[in-house]
Amino acid sequence: MAMADQEQARDEILDLFKTAWDAGLESAGIAVVYLNDGQQPPDAQETGEAGSPTPWARVSLFHATGGATTLAGGLGAHKETSEGFLQCEIYVAPAQGLRQADRLAKIVKNAFRGQRTAGGATFRNVRHQEIGRDGVWFRMDVLVDFEYDEIV
């Protein structure tokens, strides 16, 4: 199966994330900011005292490479493979640090491990990275490489 286009791929990949995040015991109700949706990240002043901000996450999807992987057939169509990565930045109170961030990262990682979207996006190299203090938050990132084909 191949994706119709990049928009379909983005929707299917982000849907996997959203479904898992909304269903997670630790993550349900925690705000998520999506790249280019016009939302602003929570401000420490709006989320509580500087030492105990409300957790939140930012999800971004980046295409990195792509190109033709087959020659055009008799109808002129050919397959193009696109690759990139999803980045989920998780922000929690420093007092919660690794414990809460680990639980939230696990939800994100499990959303993609061994999965394939209806349009054929596959995922590999699912990993997390402890960033540490970032302003009034403790930050942990989850990175997921993806790949999918389009017939163009």
Quick overview of this protein structure:
The chain has helices at 6-23, 44-47, 97-112; strands at residues 31-34, 56-68, 79-92, 122-134, 137-151. The protein has 152 residues and is α+β, with helices and mostly antiparallel strands.
Name the descriptors.
five-stranded mixed sheet; STM4215-like; 152 residues; alpha+beta; 3 helices
Describe the structure.
With 152 residues, the chain is α+β, with helices and mostly antiparallel strands. The protein has one domain (6-151): 2-Layer Sandwich (STM4215-like), CATH 3.30.2000. It is 25% helix and 39% strand. The protein is built from three helices and five strands. The chain has helices at residues 6-23, 44-47, 97-112, and strands spanning 31-34, 56-68, 79-92, 122-134, 137-151. The protein has a five-stranded mixed beta sheet, covered by helices on one side. The longest helix has 18 residues, at 6-23. The protein starts with 5 loop residues before the first helix and ends with a strand.
